[in-house]
Design a protein that fits this description.
The chain is α/β, with parallel strands linked by helices. 46% of the residues lie in helices and 11% in strands. It has 20 helices and ten strands. It has helices at residues 9-22, 28-52, 68-96, 102-131, 145-156, 174-177, 179-192, 197-206, 211-215, 217-230, 233-240, 246-251, 349-359, 378-392, 411-425, 462-473, 485-491, 507-510, 527-539, 564-589, and strands spanning 259-266, 271-272, 281-282, 294-301, 328-335, 363-367, 399-409, 433-437, 515-521, 544-549. The strands form two sheets. It has an eight-stranded mixed sheet, sandwiched between helices. α13 (349-359) links the parallel β5 (328-335) and β6. α13 crosses α20. The longest helix has 30 residues, at 102-131.
Length: 590
């Protein structure tokens, strides 16, 4: 998964020089545009050089060379390559046609705007880098004067150039191409969301029944940026939950496995053994914010044991003829992502089925309650309760429970790390290993170099990220809705709670973490918190590895059926879990 990344500035200067010297005598406007672009690229080069100075000090201490500054340089490199291709086209048209076509001139204006905005982003990155030698301070404060001022600059930046023809330009292969239909879907969905039926019809007509979004990338960009700034959490919830709708389920083909069943777990008194006492630990029943008496989980396995929950394929026969294998020694406890506000395990079944089939491991995935109706700590309460329930019901899940791997992506990664902290502080059995995929480990908008990527991210845009973090963190969020983007930023808080933001945990707790594998894309806004968390685990003496998957969007595990590149990412993560399983088995034997 290697990826060319270093910006080739000299190559683009050479091409531009050829155009201005030999090809622009009869086209002063083109000459002016090219010279303007050269000036912008020189400024971009200066900023890139500033960011590159001592960049390795921000890398993960695991030895993995990754941080948000490196990611921004890779974005610059990708942009330079796009512009080199554009200027090669200009040279070719001048030499063969004697003029430059209108579509190419339009592309020139588009990429000129993208370069300008990337300069603005790099200026912010330079400002961040000059103020700290860490990706995040030990106690981040999003309301400090300097940080709030930076966040205001982020909020006020016009990012429309990133959401038109250049949408997802920094992503790899067909993971970029899948963003266009997703963006059109979001824009069109916003036209019919809420309001009266007459208002919906009027908006549909104005957008040409989404044809304007398909045909005009500028209109699409304006709509997407407006949505990201003005949409409320309920819109984001409903849009991202569309992946679980019946019509989507009908067109998605899940890998076939023998067990994929929903289980309702009712809350009742539960005790589990302590590791430091003969007195059992009484598991708290989830009680915050909502009056809900049960939680649903999904049991996934490519086999059935005699004691497993769910039904076998012989339910219509008088006698069962199934051959039941012995329970597996290993189980995966999975927590899904969705920004704390949306989705269930149903959105993640594609890769969970693949894991279960290829690794031959049972998986239990928790459908926790979602913010803002159920903000922190409700989801954590439920995940921790189900984890403790699992410790008492291994046979029902097709496992002996000798080895537990906890895995989570995005918000689920946060809940996995927080649940692990709960097991440590309450002195109960902790998992034997963790797999954290692009985990959201700091629940406040604190600008870091990788979080600046949300200014161009097709899915995890600044407004969406800010609202998701606030909705999970703030118990009074619903009472203050609707909120403008300015109110979101003003009402954001810095809460020093390690169970909300595991990145804040200290060495005294982190040293007890099990073996951990952290997986994240180099273009993910959550990269920096994962890099810093891996370094903190390393400093605490934990066996931790960090894997960087290049060129993938945030949430790539859930897009395997939409893009080959994302499926390659799923395959990569599956292999890493397989390697982890082998290492745990070897450790058990020894």
């Amino acid at each position: 998964m290697s990826r060319l990344a270093d910006p080739h500035f000299e190559e683009i200067y050479t091409i531009c020089n050829d155009i201005t010297e030999n090809s622009c005598e009869d086209d002063p406007l083109l000459e002016s545009d090219v010279e303007s672009m050269v000036s912008k690229f020189k400024m971009l080069q200066v900023l890139t050089n500033k960011i590159s100075v001592e960049i390795s000090q921000y890398d993960s201490k695991t030895g993995t060379k990754a941080n948000g500054y490196r990611s921004l340089i890779r974005v610059v490199g990708t942009l330079v390559r796009h512009c080199i291709e554009l200027y090669e086209t200009i040279k070719h048209q001048i030499s063969t046609l004697g003029y430059v076509g209108s579509d190419v001139r339009e592309d020139l204006l588009t990429w000129s705007s993208v370069v300008e905005r990337l300069i603005n982003i790099l200026e912010l990155a330079v400002e961040i880098k000059s103020s700290t030698d860490q990706l995040y301070p030990d106690k981040p404060d999003c309301q400090s004067a300097q940080v709030y001022r930076l966040s205001q600059k982020v909020k006020d930046m016009d990012v429309t150039p990133f959401y038109g023809s250049a949408l997802g330009f920094h992503l790899r292969g067909d993971s970029r191409r899948m963003m266009h239909p997703l963006a059109i879907s979001m824009a069109s969905y916003s036209d019919i969301y809420g309001g009266s039926i007459f208002g919906k019809i009027k908006k549909l007509r104005e957008s040409g029944y989404c044809w304007n979004y398909i045909n005009n990338p500028n209109i699409l960009a304006e709509k997407i940026v407006a949505n990201s700034r003005n949409m409320q959490v309920d819109f984001a919830q409903n849009f991202y939950n569309m992946s679980e709708s019946d019509w989507v389920s009908k067109i998605k083909t899940l890998p076939k496995i023998k067990t994929s069943t929903s289980i309702k777990i009712s809350y009742e008194a539960l005790e589990v053994p302590r590791t430091n006492s003969e007195i059992n630990f009484k598991v708290p029943i989830p009680s915050s914010h909502i009056n809900k008496k049960s939680v649903q989980v999904q049991l996934i396995a490519n086999f059935r044991t005699k004691e497993m929950l769910g039904s076998c394929g012989c339910t219509t026969r008088l006698t069962c003829t199934c051959k039941f294998p012995a329970p597996k020694d290993l189980v995966i406890f999975h927590v899904h992502g969705g920004g704390f506000i949306s989705q269930t395990s149903k959105s993640h079944l594609d890769y969970l089925h693949q894991w279960s089939s290829k690794l031959d491991i049972p998986i239990i995935s928790v459908d926790y309650s979602l913010a803002p109706e159920a903000p922190y700590p409700r989801a954590l309460e439920e995940v921790f309760y189900v984890y403790c329930w699992m410790l008492k019901h291994f046979p029902a899940l097709g496992t002996t429970g000798k080895t537990i791997i906890m895995a989570g992506d995005s918000a689920g990664g946060n809940l996995v790390a927080s649940t692990t902290l709960k097991t440590i502080t309450n002195h109960i059995r902790k998992p034997d290993a963790l797999v954290l995929s692009y985990a959201a480990l700091l629940i406040q908008f604190y600008p870091s170099p990788s979080r600046l990527l949300c200014l161009m991210d097709p899915l995890l845009m600044f407004g969406i990220l800010l609202r998701c973090l606030n909705a999970y963190q703030d118990p009074n969020y619903l009472k203050t809705c609707p909120r403008t983007i300015n109110q979101e930023l003003k009402l954001a808080k810095s809460v020093n709670d390690i169970f909300m933001s595991p990145l804040l945990a200290g060495k005294e707790l982190l040293q007890h973490f099990p073996k951990t594998v952290i997986i994240v894309s180099d273009l993910d806004p959550c990269l920096d918190e994962n890099v810093q968390f891996s370094s903190k685990l390393h400093d605490a003496g934990v066996d931790v590895k960090m894997e960087v998957v290049p060129g993938m969007p945030h949430g790539f595990l859930a897009f395997g059926q939409m893009a080959t590149e994302c499926q390659l990412g799923v395959d990569h993560v599956t292999r890493k879990i397989g390697e982890l399983v082998k290492s745990l088995k070897t450790k058990t034997i020894n």
